[in-house]
Amino acid sequence: xxxxxxxxxxxxxxxxxxxxxxxxPALSAKDIxxxxxxxxxxxAKILQLMTxxxxxxxxxxxxxxxxxxxxxxxxxxYEVILAxxxxxxxxxCTKGAKSCELTPSCTIKEPLARVNDTIAGVLKSISIxxxxxxxQPGMPANGAAGLVSLRL
Amino acid sequence: xxxxxxxxxxxxxxxxxxxxxxxxPALSAKDIxxxxxxxxxxxAKILQLMTxxxxxxxxxxxxxxxxxxxxxxxxxxYEVILAxxxxxxxxxCTKGAKSCELTPSCTIKEPLARVNDTIAGVLKSISIxxxxxxxQPGMPANGAAGLVSLRL
DNA sequence: TCAGTATACGACCAATTGTGTCGGGATTAC
DNA sequence: GTAATCCCGACACAATTGGTCGTATACTGA
Lengths: 152, 152
Hints:
2 copies of one chain form a homodimer. Chain A has a single domain, classed as Arc Repressor Mutant, subunit A (Orthogonal Bundle). By secondary structure, chain A is mainly alpha-helical. In chain A, helix 1 crosses helix 3 (40-52), helix 1 (6-20) packs across helix 4 (77-85) and helix 2 (29-36) packs across helix 3 (40-52). Helix content of chain A is 44%, strand content 5%.
C-alpha cells in the first residue's frame, strides 16, 4: 500500500534522535527505545542492520552504543529505507531474473519504473539533517507542498 | 516496503488494456484476465471496485463488461491506486484521530508527509494514457529519468 | 419467457509479510 | 569478573494480501 514499514520509521526516528544529540559519544539502543516507547529489542536489531550497512558506528561494552557513521547531512532517507527494508520497487514484478514470467505482457512496469526512480530521487534528497531540523511548526500550511516536474 | 499491491498492479494493467482497445464497447473481466493470466475472479473484484469509485462503467448481461468511465488521459494512476488500495500514507503513523499516541514524539512524520505529497503528485501526473502510450522500447536508457525538485 | 452471459457481493481460506520476543554469545569498561 | 552493551539466529504472533467459492442479480437475445 505504498507505505514505510514501522521498522523503517523506527530507523529514521533513531537516526534523527542521534542527529539531535551530537554531543554524546554514543547512545544505547535502550536509550533511544525508551525515549520513544519503541520495543527495545526490535530497535536494537534495526540499529544493528544500519550498522552493518555503514550508516552507524557501534561500540559494545559499558557506555557503548551507537553513533552516526557520517554527518547527518550526508545520510539520506533513501539509504535508511534501503538498509532496513531492502531495495524497493514500486511494481510487484521487479526487473532482473524471474520477473513477470507468467505475464510476459506486464507492460505497465516500464513507465512505473520511472515513477519508482522519481520517488527514490525524492528520498535521496532528504537527509537525516532535514528531519532533525524541521521542528518549527511554522510552515504556513500551504497546500502547494513540493513542486514536482516529472519528465516521462 | 513501499510497493504497490498486486491488486493495484492488476487494476492499472486492466485500465491500460481498456485504454488500448477503445473501439470495443466493453470488455469482460474474463477477457482481460485471460489476456494477462490474472485470476479472473480476483480481477473481477478489482474492476467492481473501480466501477464503484467511478473509474469504470459496467454493463451486465451478454456482451457486457467494463469500459473506461472517462478518457484515459483523464484517469490518473493516483486515482486507481487510491480506489484499490485506499488512501496511502508513507508514514505508518497517519494524521487524524489516533495517530502516534504512544509516541508523541514521532516528529519524523511531518517532513515525510511532504515526501508523501510529492509522491502523490507524481502519481497524479501519470495518466492511464501515459501507461498505454509507452510501448516503444526506444527510450535511450538515460539514467537521468525524471527531474524532480522538492521544496522542503 | 427462458437460457446464457455477465456483473455484484459477501464469506472464507491460504500465503506472505510485518512485528515483536527470546535466548545465547561476544565485547568492552570499570 | 561483572555489568553493560552490541550481535545474531530462531521463533511466535498478528496483520495484510492474494485468491477462491457460492450465490444473487442484471441484462441480452432468441
